[in-house]
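Hey L., structure's done. Input below.
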Amino acid sequence: MNINNIIISLSNVRHHACATITVLLIVSGCASNSMLDQNQVTTTVLLDTSTTYLAKQFQPYTDEHPSLTGLYPVESGTKALVTRLALINSAEKSLDVQYYIWHDDMTGKLMQQALLDAADRGVRVRLLLDDMDTAGKDGSLAALDSHANIELRVFNPFSNRNFRLADLFSIPARLNHRMHNKSLTVDNRATIVGGRNIGNEYFSAEAHVDFADLDVIAIGTAVNEVSTAFDLYWNHKYVVNFSYFYPDYDAGKPLEQLRSELDSNHESAKKSAYAEAIAENYDLHQRVLIPENWHWGTATVIYDDPIKIEDKSNPDETHLGAMLHKIVGQTKRELVVISPYFVPGKRFTKYLGTLTEQGIKVKILTNSLAATDVALVHAGYMNYRADLLSANVELYEYKPDTNQVDLSSKMKMSGSSPGSLHAKTLAIDQRWIFIGSFNVDPRSVLWNTEIGIIADSPVLAGTLSSGFENDIRNAAYELTFDPESKKIAWLEYDGDQVSRHEKEPHTSGWQRFVVRIMSWLPIESQL
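Output:
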């Protein structure tokens, strides 16, 4: 195709803008193809880590539980940060780190500094980020990547680093697929998998917003499986070396500047109120090493094959959603689902109804409108509430900290919650538990890639189940449905007191109006 001919044919002055966009789309498309065709060096997990500190610490316990996985749940945001920093600081040979979002804020920089310190010690650091969240961060990421012991790669990248909109126009089908996976593996001896990204709101470091989330540390057999998944992504054709975009990058000065910025952030963090919370929890890594704190059982790591981007012919073999559906199909007595973004669709809603018809208890916890950080997803979910409740599904919606809710605030497309559910987990028959990055929504099922651990752990699964019985009323609204009036009500418990809300509680009329308009949009498959 001759670009000059295209431009000449658009001779009318009114079409000059269209011509410019057309050229950008063509150039962007060509650059995208060449970018994905590059031959990058294949690297794999380092297996010879038997002499490392973590190997020596965990070996007695893994020897005592052959073929099993030890799990340690991490619920607190502060503990989640401390755990990561402690494990990174323990690394001696390798760090394999994979995340969807990595904010350039206080905790994000603390994590960056920990990786840089590890690299200075001689640890090989492989950092894999989804490219959707890297906009505006290329300078600091390139500086980090320039370290001799750090290699940064990005998943499904934008070829145009300065005008990403051109890529979104030219190759929207590809860029609609994102890597939502979250894992951090140290010396192939311990790994953290769960719902948290890297950023202040995920580690309880923001005064105005806090995500209720869940991670799990794993040792034993599951660690190798997470490493296998990481290698699959790391060496996939949709993953590109960050250095591809900056082949002539001058490493010296920018890296020193990054070190200075990270040092300044560290000093500032030490003077913050958050530092007290970190200090209170910094002995966590010692408690993690106590065997009584681990829950042992068989476990399997399930994840989307990155081929999901282009191949939907074998979803049972390549899609986590299909794998998880098979597991859920084995439920005999009780299914508990916690998903911050819950858009079940007609088929899954009907399926949950068939479970309740068999006498199986189905309990769902998701965000309320007042708690959600993505109002558009809530708009998709609200269309299924009546059907779920009519099918005897127990439905609960997470409450925000109502003392911080500004009822006069306008609804934002991204939500406006000061406290939001972000954990993604489910329990089956008080025996099996899944913890990972997967939401029960079309985006996780169809578009994004995900990862999680499914484990035979009656203690953890039972704890999740009993939490619904003992704690859920304090943390969430219980929804009811009147089949005659076709109206939903929200029950809010405060000790023995029960308040009944006929409208979405702790929201404004404007919020409810906007989300209702959103619910009419034909975009459910993208939520």
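The two ends are 36 Å apart (CA to CA). The chain has three domains: 3-36, 74-292, 298-526.

-- N.
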